[in-house]
User: Fold this.
Amino acid sequence: MKKSYFALSMILLAICILTTKSVSANEISQTENYFTEDDIVNWEQTILNNANNEYPIGDTKGNNGRVYRAASGAWTWRDGVICITDSKAITPLFNNGHAGIIAAAPYYYATIEANPRDGVQPKYGNWNDRFSTNMVYQYGVKRTSVTQDQNAAKWAARQIGKQYNYQFFNINRRDKFYCSQLVWAAYRDTAKVDIGTWEWGSAIHPFELMSSNETTLIYRNK
Assistant:
């Protein structure tokens, strides 16, 4: 099968639970050859399988460094923790997922997220309720301090009101964001930690944040 950037564009177009909002052709067109559809499906499933077989360590930064390995860990509202779900998107062939970052005050019990419908906004409520039929994961960044995590959360909040970024391979723009780009940029711009893997070229897939050497699983809902 010919490797096609079109396949990758379609999965990223569906990222972050894409709705039916119209998008200009110039914003989503891609021309280079890259991945097969099978490559994408297999890669996504491998990441999910690894995450589902791993024992979460719990939020060690919030527990004075103590590790509590358990079947699921415990949900945390600590500022800057990364949230990911395997929720399906518009393209049934792909399982694209969605990512957000736990918000800092004054956005209590909220995550900062980028969605096609309303751009960057705080979204309130536990993800176990919001995505009750899906897998939900939380990841921490290994090399950062609690203060650095909080700074990443505050940085994400300063992006509230910005539009959705449909140019998925342009992750260096800061006037628009898609979900996993927002989370990646929050740590890249504040702590200088790259939590991407570059397995998708210059695009940032939500599941990259799960497979990054810079992150660790602290919670899984099932």
